[in-house]
Amino acid sequence: MPASLHSLWENRPLRNLVLLAAATVVAVIAAAVAVVTDRSSVETSFVPHPLFAGLDTRLDQVDRIVYTASQGMHGVSRVVMLRNTDGVWGAEARGGYPVDPELIKKTLLGLGDMEAYEPRTANPEWHRNLGLMQPEDIGSAIRVELFRGEERMAGLLVGKVPERAVDVQGEGLIYVRRDGEDQSWLARGRLPLLKTVTEWLDPTFVDISRNELARVTLWGGTETPVIIERASRDESDFSIVNIPAGRITRGAPVVNGVATAISGKSFDDVAPADTLDLPENAPTVYFDTFDGVRLTMSMGGQGGALWAKFAAEADPALAVPDADADAAAARAAEFNERLGAWVYKLPQDLGGQLTQTMDLLTRESGPADL
After folding, report:
1. What phi, psi does 305 have (nearest 5°)?
2. Which strands make up the sheet holding 185-188, listed edge to edge?
3. 200, 230, 256: which is the final residue of a domain?
């Protein structure tokens, strides 16, 4: 051994320091190798896969969808949607009223295509951090279930959206776990997460466009109707045609707003028609089209709200010359089929617009109006 090395070896404190440094270097290298090896094994062993294998090929068999969410100390709420024999999806709690078909499509395809993207905790004590506590335990997860008859085809608890809300391909990410399992996942996919029945309802309502609308009569069938009309589709403004002497309207914007109030509107809620009896003197509105369709809306109160029933008929006497009588009859039949079996809870602003009186829509004329 060279003299310098021998001298170093004989110096015990220095020798120990050298040995400690060497051991540290070995430990660091071993740790680095372990991390790389572990990461490599994870990356190569886990491959994203469908959460419900084969479900995407059976979606046409689903006949019931159930969403369950917590209501805190009041238990849980359930939205149940059923597919009828005609293939139309309806809300069980609203007598089968049609639900939005686009939302149904997104739900079915969302579950069928949902992928386990990365594994997360399997410790139930950590589920709350991911929003995956079940709703029966006052958890924030929403349970989504698909059924065929009594067979549950899929059950998924959906939790929080992570800060990294999309993957590198732009797909949505969310924390989930299969119902009944502790293993959680960062999943790739999207689902509608609506907790109330009314959010699911098909929003299609009275789809009479401004171009179709010839006349609106408020307080129809009474001695004090308000008749608002225009002579042709080319006229931009509606006019009140039965204004009492000495009065004028409060302006074209006000009159036009009332005439077209229902265009583009939806409703707040719905129920089967036989659940509401309207009084004989219920406020009534007539909507007349240039093609000769009259849609009658009768209104009544229930629970502090204003509800409406609808009935349609084709009347050639209301049509402009050369109107298509067959098209008018078909349009009236379509209204009756879609609206006739239901009563609709009206938005407050719409109910207010369509119950205005002549006194509210006009004012006394003065010298400045001459």
Report:
1. -115, 165
2. 49-50, 115-119, 185-188, 173-178, 151-158, 142-148, 64-70, 76-83, 89-91, 97-98
3. 200
- State the residue range of the domain holding 323: 213-369
Q: Are residues 179 and 265 in the same domain?
A: no
Question: Helices (H) and strands (E) in the chain — how many of each?
Answer: 8, 20
Residue 183: inside a domain, yes or no? yes
Joined together, the tokens standing for residue 96 give 């089968």
Cβ 216 vs Cβ 228: under 8 Å:
yes
Query: Residue 305: which H helix or E strand, with range?
Result: strand 305-314
- Mark whether 74 and 193 lie in a shared domain: yes
Mark whether 251 and 347 lie in a shared domain: yes
Residue 114 C-beta-side C-alpha neighbours within 13 Å: 27
- Per the structure, the count of domains in the chain is 2
Banded model confidence at residue 81, pLDDT cuts 50, 70, 90: very high
In a domain, 81, yes or no: yes
pLDDT tens digit sequence for 228-254: 999 999 999 999 999 999 999 999 999
CA of 147: how far to CAs of 41, 76, 83, 235, in Å? 38, 19, 11, 53
